[in-house]
Amino acid sequence: MHGRPRIAPTKEDQEASSLKAAKLRDLQSQVLNFHHNKIYTKEAVEISAKLLESNPEHYTGWNYRKLAVQYLLDQQSENGVDSNSIQSILDEELRVVENALKKNFKSYGAWHHRKWVLSKGHSSIDRELRLLGRFQKLDSRNFHAWNYRRFIAGLRKIPDEEELQYTTDMIYDNFSNYSAWHNRSVLLSNLLGKREKGYHDKEKVFGEEYEFVRNALFTDPDDQSGWFYHLWLLDQTLKREPVLLSSWPPHGSNLCLSVDGSLNDRQPLPVLHFQSKASTFPLILYFSEAVEGVSSSTVTFECKYHAGDDFTWMPLSANKFGFSQAWLTYLKFPNEVHSLEAFPVKVTVAHAAGITSSSGMPCSQSCHISFTVVVPSDDREHSELQTTRRISWKEENIKSCTTQSLEGDILRSLCELEITKENKPTTTKWSMETISNEIAHCQELLSTTNCKIGKLTLARLLMARNTLISYGNPHAGTEVHYEDVLALYRDLMKMDPAHICHYEDEYSLVLLKQLTSNIGSLMKHCYQYQESSSPSMNPYLCVRLNGLSLSRLGSMEQLLWVQMLDLSHNKLRTIEGLEALQLLSCLKLNNNRLCSFTALEPLKTLKSLEALDISYNEIGAHSIDTRRYLCSSPLTHAVGMDWNFKKFTDEDVKLKGHWDAYLLFKDLNLSQLEIAGNAVVNDRLKAFLSKLMPSLKWLDDEECC
């Protein structure tokens, strides 16, 4: 561990270790007996001390001592004994903890127990500071000691300015001190948040901090501690309130709701078609960062014929705290409303306060999305005759969208529509100058050394400047440095193969940002899919991102309108992000690196999905697949009791291991599925899926019965 070679123990070492283990087992047995029987005698407490001084990681031992000490303190209070006796009990606890820390300075249980003793209020804080001084001389980077120091500083009410100076001294003593840099970020956040004297001007403070950390970076570029602090400063420099990036339907668009999906040439152009038998369509809001608080009170609607005033907003791919970049609700028009008249719809986002980012920034500036909806008279007889069309993905059915074509006009309008001008926040001059200055310094450093984390930081800085340019001037175009950033990540993959997966992910995000950054680059990947046998049906708007070595998905805010997506022949292990593409009907994911059905969980939210190709992946190829257990097993109570798994397995024991396939496909309404080429596939699984999805018409090129 940590570069120390493993040495085989001698026979004498093994005998000594066995004797020590036997003694520990005996002490542990006695302490557990005391704990279960609530024995708090002097002898019992002394035995627990011996155990903890020998093995500080025995959490039950520390909990037993808390109960024992509290029992003794309660006895002292009942007998009216003076404070010296109480002080003696607590001092003994501090002595036991100190001996335990000498054994293992990184014992969580020991440090937690010491905090508990100090919280009783009878111990000397100054003595604790002196003890910390001795400990931190032995290990100045130990985060347990720094965490305890923050606790002690709070008890003693030491000003944050004094503690900040302490971190400065410790960093000057050894700038490779991760814990000191971290404590510095905590203290500066407090000082700036309270607007203490000398900390009113955030720009001045951060300017001085950039200069301070730069000294460490140029002294030893390969030491990562200063770079992590630099990354925190970069995050603070870019911190801004969340904004609405895109929506579907987009602002300024014309939407035609059809029952059967047939073309209607009487609508104003360009027009977006959406097929819905219930006259319902999704409304998607995509923010610049994950937010919470999207509700009927913060987002309002103005529409003459919309049925219902209360909307239920659902976060797509929310984290455990309920924050999400993409939010979804449904707008429904009454069935009796059928007219060629275009009904205007106005959506006001941030109508009232309540939308907040995960970084704590409020979305304070309201914006508007306006579009029109046409609900033409539906031909029920015609719609009943329509049959589900099979997607062949043949090249003759896929045509590129030229700028002169109707679909080209639609795509161009989708990419050029702005939400509202006032929604785009201006970039402060300080932010832009700071990022540009750091780019220059980073390039200067890399001109003299081939530093991995320096290159990673430069890539992040260049992308940060891209973001600021797009905020500051929406019409600035893409004069940014995508190729430079991609070159940096290619270098990092060669220099640091141990972390190649991370670099591939970042490379993929930058590449997708480049491809979707303007209409010219995006149009190169846009197509229309039209079956020659169904010329009266609306063609699918298709995007092909196949064969790009993508390992991660991003820039989904630019693709909310996509109906058909080809992601085949990439390196995808997850499809997180696709849940925002609510119009997606056909998805091609063959020849990727998907290892389990769990990796496809985002598909469960795509109600329009009809055709799915996940053939020739790695599903079932790995004996241990940790991602499979990221979703709740039906053997637990987390997924409810209505799953009816036995109904579809016919008591086939070998199918009972496919509960993750059941949890995925039971929520899908697929008509076409390609699954061949995965290790998990056999005839029993195919029969299981056919039974599970009655809507399935084709499975691996074969028509289902």
From TrEMBL:
Its family? Belongs to the protein prenyltransferase subunit alpha family.
InterPro entries in alphabetical order: Leu-rich_rpt, LRR_dom_sf, Prenyl_trans_a
In terms of domain of life, where is this protein from? Eukaryota
Gene Ontology MF: a single term: Rab geranylgeranyltransferase activity
State the Gene3D superfamilies in the record: Protein prenylyltransferase, Ribonuclease Inhibitor
Q: Please give the function described in this protein's UniProt entry.
A: Catalyzes the transfer of a geranyl-geranyl moiety from geranyl-geranyl pyrophosphate to cysteines occuring in specific C-terminal amino acid sequences.
Listed A to Z, the keywords are: Prenyltransferase, Repeat, Transferase
What name does the UniProt record give this protein?
A: Geranylgeranyl transferase type-2 subunit alpha
- Using the record, list the residue span of the signal peptide; answer none if the entry has no such feature: none
Q: Which source organism?
A: Sesamum alatum
E.C. designation(s) = 2.5.1.60
> Keyword ATP-binding, does the record have it?
no
Q: Pfam families, alphabetically?
A: PPTA
| GO CC terms in record | Rab-protein geranylgeranyltransferase complex
Residues folding into a coiled coil are none
Record field: catalytic activity: geranylgeranyl diphosphate + L-cysteinyl-[protein] = S-geranylgeranyl-L-cysteinyl-[protein] + diphosphate
A Gene Ontology biological process term: prenylation
Please name the top-level EC class of this enzyme: transferase
